[in-house]
From TrEMBL:
Domain of life: Bacteria
Signal peptide: 1-23
Species annotation: Bacillus carboniphilus
UniProt keyword Signal, yes or no: yes
Protein's name in the database: Intracellular proteinase inhibitor BsuPI domain-containing protein
This protein's UniProt keywords: Signal
């Protein structure tokens, strides 16, 4: 019986250590859509490297394929993101109707601001010959 209690206690302690208990760095979320795509996103704070992991799911609601625009191999852009000086690589990737795309990025802690200046990412895409940009604001 004591062995089970110790194992359970170790499991609970390990689980508590993995979650974000620091209220200075709350986990954030976002849900937004426009006429063509919908986006769900979350953040998790990593204490080891003092940064946030931003995970995002893009779903194509349009009747036609869309082209997700990647700039320097990234689809997610945020204010203050360092730019690669020698990168001229811009391309598009097709996302068929009713399909989804997962993306993630690591964001330094100092780029995540709450209050009046909430953190947000921007996604750019093409539908037929029109370019669209969707801002994804995060909140607690």
């Amino acid at each position: 019986m004591k062995k089970r209690v110790y194992v359970l206690l170790l499991f609970v302690l390990a689980l508590a250590n993995c979650t974000n208990t620091n209220t200075d760095f709350p986990n954030l979320h976002a849900r937004v859509q426009d006429e063509n795509i919908s986006v769900n996103a979350t953040t998790n704070f990593f204490r080891n490297n003092n940064s946030f992991y931003v995970a995002i799911m893009i779903f194509n609601n349009a009747d036609h394929a869309i082209e997700l625009i990647f700039d320097c191999n990234d689809i997610l852009h945020y204010y203050g993101k360092p730019k690669e000086t020698l990168c001229m690589d811009v391309y598009a990737s097709t996302l068929d109707p009713q399909k989804s795309y997962k993306a993630s990025i690591e964001v330094p802690n100092e780029r995540i601001k709450m209050g009046n200046d909430n953190f947000h990412v921007e996604i750019k895409y093409l539908l037929v010959d029109d370019q669209f940009s969707l801002t994804v604001p995060f909140k607690e």
